[in-house]
Design a protein that fits this description.
globular, alpha/beta, 6-stranded mixed beta sheet, about 25% helix, about 300 residues
């Protein structure tokens, strides 16, 4: 089995390419919009991306699942769990996943486990290297369990304006944690979807991965046996979600528009720039913020390319 963790520091976001070396097939889990890096990683490993999926409808970045599945001619897998009010609008483009559904990637088995709380449709993926084992070696937990923390259950209400879902989500998260913890081997690895700096939790460690046994001992969320106390603890101190989260939620639910490839915008020469400024067009200056602050053209907007 081949495993590549691809990390985007600006979002503290991790996605994973998992492949079967024997069959040359690969699955990508939680790709972000920059899909070229997954295609490059697959080429480096001499495998073909045949499956694409994600743990849930993301709030902090625009998903690349739809785009990558089309570019790679791969099967798109999307959660069909959760209530009817929170489903993928473009689910008809792929295969629907329920609790217990298995994706076969050569001899690698990826099994979906419904772990709601952060979002109603959230899935965790258990990964088994069928060439050498008959039990999972790792759980890709997305925004369910982090190293040292758990996913916040308040985003549907605070970012997507789904009223009354915050406490319900917290109670659901508590039950998901108890169900996930029951009977899991201590050595089962946890490969989360975020590291320190993400707004999807309030105390995520910078350590990239963990085990069930370690989290049982040192993750605060596993030490609160009372549901009401857990609800109070998980909702307390959550940071204000960035304002763009609501837009990301909506776009990822409806289906991010596919681009069909990426091309840098044309660089503007002086004459075109002057004409556009005269026409009151919106001009984006992509230089670093300190360079923009030092000197820039009046009326332009600074969005650093990084």
């Amino acid at each position: 089995m081949i495993v590549r963790r691809l990390f985007e520091p600006g979002l503290a976001q991790a996605s994973y390419l998992i492949a079967c070396a024997a069959s040359g097939e690969a699955i990508v889990i939680d790709p972000n919009r920059d899909i070229d890096m997954y295609l490059a990683a697959a080429a480096d490993e001499h495998v073909r991306i045949s499956h694409v999926t994600e743990t849930h409808i993301h709030a902090d970045f625009l998903s690349g699942s739809r785009e990558l599945a089309r570019r790679a001619r791969a099967v798109l897998h999307l959660s069909d769990e959760g209530d009817a009010a929170w489903k993928y609008r473009f689910a008809g483009e792929g295969r629907l996943l329920k609790h217990g559904t298995r994706i076969e990637v050569g001899r690698v088995i990826v099994e979906a486990v419904h772990t709601p709380g952060h979002t109603p449709e959230h899935l965790t993926f258990l990964v088994t290297d069928g060439a050498v084992a008959n039990a999972p070696m790792a759980a890709l937990t997305g925004d369910f369990v982090f190293v040292g923390d758990v996913g916040r259950p308040d985003l549907l209400e605070r970012a997507a304006n789904e009223r009354g879902t915050m406490e319900t989500g917290a109670r659901t998260l508590y039950r998901s944690l108890r169900a996930f913890d029951a009977g899991r081997d201590e050595w089962l690895q946890i490969w989360p979807g975020h590291g320190a700096g993400s707004s999807c939790g309030k105390g995520i460690s910078a350590v990239p991965h963990s085990t069930v046994g370690y989290e049982r001992r040192f993750n605060w969320a596993f030490h609160i046996p009372d549901e009401d106390a857990f609800v109070r603890a998980v909702l307390a101190g959550q940071p204000e979600p960035p304002s763009y989260f609501a837009t990301m939620k909506r776009l990822n639910k409806e289906g991010p528009p596919t681009l069909g490839g990426f091309r840098l915008p044309d660089r503007l020469d002086d004459s075109r720039l002057a004409a556009l400024i005269a026409a009151h067009a919106t001009i984006v200056d992509t230089r670093p913020a300190d360079a923009f602050a030092d000197r820039h053209i009046r009326g332009t907007i600074n969005i650093p390319f990084s």
